[in-house]
Queue: 4 jobs
Job 1
Amino acid sequence: MHITYHYIVALVIRLILIIYGIIQDNVLKVKYTDIDYHVFTDAAEYVLKGDSPFKRHTYRYTPILAYMLLPNILVQNAFGKIIFSVLDIFTSILIFKVLKNHGYNADICKKSSFMWLYNPLTMVISTRGNAESIMSTLVILCIYLFQKNKPSLCGLVYGLSVHFKIYPCIYAISFYFAYSSAYTSQDNKFKFLFLPNKNKLFYMFFSVIGFAIPTVLFVFLYGEEYIWEALLYHVSRKDIRHNFSPYFYVLYLSEAMDSRLPMFISVLAFITQFLTVFITAWVFHSPRLLPISMFIQTFCFVTLNKVCTSQYFLWYICLFPLSYPSLNIKFKQIATAFVLWMASQGLWLFPAYLLEFKGYNVFIWVWIASLIFYSVNMYLICLFVKHVKCKHDSKKYR
């Protein structure tokens, strides 16, 4: 079957899930639609009335998202889910194109793109109304534009992705290093990676433009409300219950005390995240290893973050199909790793359910499960780093 037909089939499956979701929402007490989708839609309604989207309590996203979902009010409430599902398909197309440009054969490109296209997790998340498919599209589009040696466009899209959500800022150093000129073993590696060149300057300049234009526009339109809700909230956020991070229990206990512990944890998390992001970019600075560098950076960043929720997992899952061909690892090992990863989540989800819905005092159990999940993630990161193919026969990006 030609890959185009797979895109059509995958889109049809998502549309069926959207229809099913409408039925479940109207029949069952447990709703299919993500609560955030209602937040997006309410914000769009405020925008349509000429008000600020931030009048909707808990709306802490770029106003662009509210504008995108205006058809939810004007056409049909499920329109946004269709947008997210189409972006899901577009992400898979980009995965195929990136790997094809990278020199892999069509069979590897298809298998890798199918990891996203037919992934039940991505299907459910987009059809429930979660907007993470926007981020996966923007991030992988940056890699595609990097391959095409278009530093200005790459910078613009990258800046826009950081405007949408702050976390892609961790990729800045990887793109900067990857835009370095040709390198030989006799060159000074430090100068080679850090000294600017034309591509680096174009990339940096247009990254600032891509971030600044929408950000300044919305500061002008919505003022401090936008700054606090869409930007600063995500920096200062604390989550003491719905959280896979081992930090959650310490933060929970510190709530009852006048303590500087939360600040210490924030600094500790930032330092460990910065070091792992920088070291990964330094080690895997080759242009052909950009996807695996970004994948490992994101995996480390999410695992080490002081707040870790399930939607963050998509940040690195979307990069895994691009990274898989660069790993000298058997499918059996990948399958085992996936089962281990899912099992450690299940171990956390059960006590978390007892805590949140039954009110049982199982904080210690949840915290131990968080430590196990953290350990599994660190094991997987080490496994992937160990099996990176630093040399292979596929052609260079540029």
Note: Residues 331-357 form the longest helix (27 residues).
Job 2
Amino acid sequence: QLDSIPDGEDEYFAGTKTRRMSRLFSRLPQMQLVAMNPVFFETAKAILQKPLHFWSGENRVELIPDVQIGMTQAIQIWPGQKAQPLHRDDAVWMWRHPIYGREARVQIMFAVTDFTEENGATKVIPQSHLWDDQRGPQIEETVSAEMKAGDALIWIGSTYHGGGENVSNEPRIGLTMSYDLAFLRQEENHYLSMPPESMSNFSDELKGLLGWNMSSTFVGFVEHE
């Protein structure tokens, strides 16, 4: 399906030799397996579901945030594509750093083809989630997440990263998806990108992950349900 997707038109971020396909839950039946993969899902929950204790009258209550699926994209980087600017994914919510409470996102990059230094493997800066907002990222600080097809990279929203430069003769393809805190607005609008009837074979848990539920913090209710 990537063959029908036009190249990006943004030299700075999206890339002019990169194809990006979203709405993956409408397009790829395999996305159900990716989202519910226990390694991915349990890792996301362990990082994101930090409890909050607060008072409700005379009762001290523990509240654990839910997790939702944020954005999805299949990304094909063609030869000649320059490296993507290094960035933090949690910038979409204007998250501040260093983080003193909770992470907003856990991101998955699933390698559809091999990821190599030459073909544009994702570059990450280890330990950059500890930096404040005054320190800028440098390409010399990155490492390339080289992977075989079928492997996956997991990083958190406060980690600096970016797609690498493709100096090979072949495109590299990755599939990325985020798990986000359920009380944040989803970066990808699943309500408009996929009609409810397209989820008829989805489990209730997966429907909830895509946003068709009320979160534990009561966000998303309809008539209080």
Note: The mean pLDDT is 94.
Job 3
Amino acid sequence: MKYDVVVMGSINMDTVIYVDKFPSHGDNVVTKGSQILAGGKGANQAVTVAKQGVNHAFIGAVGTDGAANQIIEVLENKGVDVEHIIRKDHSQTGSSVAIVDKKGENTIFGMLAVNMEIAAEDIRKVFEDIEGTVFLLQLETSKASVLEALKIAKSKGMFIILDPAPEGLFFEEALEFADIVTPNRMETKRITGVDVTDVSSGKNAARIIANKGVKHVIVKLGALGSIYLNANTDEYTFVESLKVETVNTVGAGDTFAGVLASELSKNRKDIISAIHLATKAAAIKVSRAGGQDSIPSSEELKKL
């Protein structure tokens, strides 16, 4: 079947803990509250795409534990196509703990579990019935699954968006297949060695990534906005962020990626307009508490 956007990535059951200040080693901290939510970068991106009303497929994996059916039900209720989710016998569904401080900044501890058990043959099998316009993925599944998916997507002529997150799982070979790479500051430093602190250093880092063979680079600068480099024309574009009161930054990058992919599935040539809309979507996401429910829909974005 032909889809506008094919998303591949992690599926986790997330625990979000709210604190005033991130604890130091040995601290005993009283929290301000907590939530248990369906998450994972892949699932968040798939929910974002679904909320844009785009015909899509989602490739991921769950185990056979109690969390598996719960997460699939949650994703299905949010409009995600769950037909291609892989179930691994005797495996544990991924999970993570996110600590969010009063400024909305987050630190995440993840156990990827079954996400790292996806094999190349699993990917080959699931792609037998999938064609697509845009392929969006990050790095929270096994290296073998990422490489196989990238190779197949490229062979099928898909436009590939690589969100190189988390930075600890980045490997340079993935860049060979990407049409667009969208690193944040930490991921950019992992890829380039450049500590991105402003627009100028963001441009320098984008150039280094482009020199590795990537035609379109979007370096996300957090609250500042983002730098887009079109290596085909050697042009830089700075897209300023929207100023909002930050409540929770968890999932902002996933929201950005999902809206970007959705827009480029309609018109892959107008990348700048897609970045502007993705920036608005991420701003809305960080201004709200909660997980996937706080991801804006296409209707909300049109009203903004």
Note: The CA atoms of residues 122 and 180 lie 25 Å apart.
Job 4
Amino acid sequence: METLNKDFVSQSVLKRRSEDYEPPSISELQRLLWTKAGCGHVDHVWPNLHLGDAWTARDKMTLKRMRITHILNAADGKFNINTGAIYYKDMGIHYYGVEAFDAPDFNLSAFFYPAAKFIRAGLNTLGGKVFVHCAMGISRAATLVLAFLMICEKMTLVEAIKTVSVHRNISPNNGFLSQLRELDRALMRERKR
């Protein structure tokens, strides 16, 4: 597994941002995506934070081997990846489910802050390791991981995409990218105060 260089990312975050910062267009953001050769079931994208698919979510042996303590399912519900807290009750895993659909008109932004709070709590737990997933681990789950990095690690959208894309191919749909752009703008306004 590659060593994650959190210090480098933190240094880039501390650089002074321009007063006229504007998130890139959707087409420019799409050019930043899908930069890694191949895409596995699960990848370590940030210290103690893993991003992956439904196969890994259902593989209890892999989750035990990875020592996962928290799972965020971005495709929860009976029409999606219906694992739920009961599925993991024998493992002592903390579970948070978001019943999201991978559709451009789905409002995933309503879950940005609750998901970021869950991920942060998991990472702050002694020995905490968080696994965020959806069906394929490239759109819904990736969007929530990007939002976490933007909200809790104070990254811009571009910095968050570059951070995750080094380790895993991601491809949030255009609607999710638009929602992340709005989050980016809101966070920039908030940080200027």
Note: Residues 1-16 have pLDDT under 50 and may be disordered.
